[in-house]
Write a structure and sequence with these properties.
With 100 residues, this protein is of the alpha+beta class. The chain contains three helices and four strands; from the N terminus they run H-E-H-H-E-E-E. It has a single domain, classed as Arc Repressor Mutant, subunit A (Orthogonal Bundle).
Length: 100
């Protein structure tokens, strides 16, 4: 399978499956989903995995974290991120930096 043949749904399913196989509070690196789908060319898939993860977070089914803290998926993401299940305190991400 080439990275172009991988669908967004397959990426969503890979992220969800990896999280489901872990403890509820556990997170995954987006590269784990990419590697599960494209073991040899996973790096080519990384931009799409991040894009799909952002969409999932905007829909409230995923929490994106940096440095252990939830981040608003509407803001540009720079650097490493982790993906986790949403928790009651991360559902409905705040729209302002001060949490309002």
């Amino acid at each position: 399978m080439t990275s172009m043949a991988v669908s967004d749904k397959q990426i969503c399913d890979a992220i969800a499956g990896l999280l489901e196989s872990r403890q509820p509070q556990a997170t995954i690196c987006p590269s784990e989903a990419a590697r599960a789908l494209e073991p040899n060319e996973w790096r080519l898939l990384m931009p799409r995995v991040r894009t799909v993860a952002i969409g999932m977070a905007k829909n409230g089914v995923l929490d994106i974290r940096q440095g252990g803290r939830s981040v608003v998926p509407d803001e540009p993401l720079r650097g490493p991120i982790r993906l986790g299940r949403p928790t009651p305190d991360t559902v409905g991400h705040p729209t302002a930096p001060d949490g309002r």
